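User: Hi! I have a protein structure encoded as tokens and I'd like to know what sequence might fold into it. I'm fairly new to this, so please keep things simple.
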């Protein structure tokens, strides 16, 4: 089990890395890529390519995940029931 000190140290390092990423990235490019990703998810477009483009633009995994969770959960596709979804076969839990 990780100690409280090492957990705090990890949290500080992660916050520093996130701050550096946000300072480095072009926010307009990230916003555009996230908009394209949102459109792809809503319309059944090329989600993988749009997701890759968003990450390449500097979007965080959290930003991408929030869009996927928001849109797919709204459609009732939350994966919580253990179903694979694509072929109707239940995945082991």
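Assistant: Happy to help. Inverse folding works backwards from shape to sequence: for each of the 93 positions I chose a residue that suits the local structure. Here it is:
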């Amino acid at each position: 089990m990780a100690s409280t000190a090492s957990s705090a140290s990890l949290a500080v390092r992660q916050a520093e890395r996130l701050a550096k990423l946000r300072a480095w990235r072009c926010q307009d490019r990230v916003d555009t890529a996230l908009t394209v990703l949102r459109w792809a998810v809503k319309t059944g477009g090329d989600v993988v390519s749009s997701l890759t483009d968003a990450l390449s633009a500097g979007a965080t995994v959290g930003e991408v995940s929030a869009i996927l969770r928001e849109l797919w959960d709204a459609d009732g596709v939350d994966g919580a029931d253990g179903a694979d979804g694509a072929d109707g076969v239940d995945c082991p839990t």
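A useful reference point when you look it over: The longest helix spans residues 4-24. Feel free to ask if any position seems puzzling.
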